[in-house]
Specification:
Layout: H1 8-33, E1 53-55, E2 62-68, E3 76-78, E4 85-87, H2 98-103, E5 108-109, E6 115-116, E7 125-129, E8 135-139, E9 142-143, E10 162-163, E11 166-170
Parallel strand pairs: 2-6
Antiparallel strand pairs: 1-2, 2-3, 4-11, 5-8, 7-8, 8-9, 10-11
């Protein structure tokens, strides 16, 4: 038997442990230097999932949570703090097609109503039926969207964007669009 053959599994185990320790150290460094609103340990360029939510308590269903930002002017955000937008003249949701939804993911749910967070008027929160049988979350009758380019909580790069689908705005906690800056 070659002297190094018997130690190969041990070397692999030590290499795996050293790699794991290095990754943990990198994550701890990243968490210490994260800016407010960043998601430590996650790629900041990765868009948020379409449906951040909290458990509703029944059968694993989830309820999207809509809440108020802690910034001025107050606007709608999801449970993870990502800004929510409306597309002007889009009350039925038809102006934002599949290509649009790649840049502006809709806030959706299945078979459960959204939950109002702090600062939200429950009577303004609702849903409309989508063609794919999901429910599109609305506020004051306007379908809600995220902006994929926002890259996380606290970002509002979509406010005032005008594109081929129309004009996008943050949504006020009182219902109408937040005025353009």
């Amino acid at each position: 038997m070659h002297p190094s053959t018997g130690s190969t599994p041990l070397r692999l185990l030590l290499l795996a442990l050293a790699t794991a320790a290095a990754l943990v150290a990198c994550q701890e460094d990243r968490a210490d230097t994260a800016a407010p609103g960043e998601r430590p340990g996650l790629d900041p360029d990765t868009p948020m999932p379409t449906n951040p939510a909290v458990a509703a308590g029944q059968g694993g269903d989830v309820r999207p949570v809509v809440t108020a930002s802690d910034t001025t002017p107050a606007h709608l955000v999801d449970a993870s703090g990502q800004a929510l937008y409306m597309l002007h003249d889009n009350a039925d949701g038809s102006r934002c097609d599949t290509r649009c939804e790649g840049a502006w993911p809709p806030v959706t749910t299945r078979d459960v109503q959204p939950a109002p967070g702090e600062g939200i008027q429950n009577d303004l929160l609702g849903t409309i039926q989508r063609q794919d049988s999901t429910l599109h979350v609305t506020y004051d009758g306007q379908p809600l969207y995220r902006y994929a380019a926002d890259a996380g909580a606290g970002r509002t790069a979509g406010h005032g964007v005008e594109d081929q689908w129309g004009e996008w705005s943050l949504v006020s906690v009182h219902g109408p669009a937040v005025p353009q800056r």
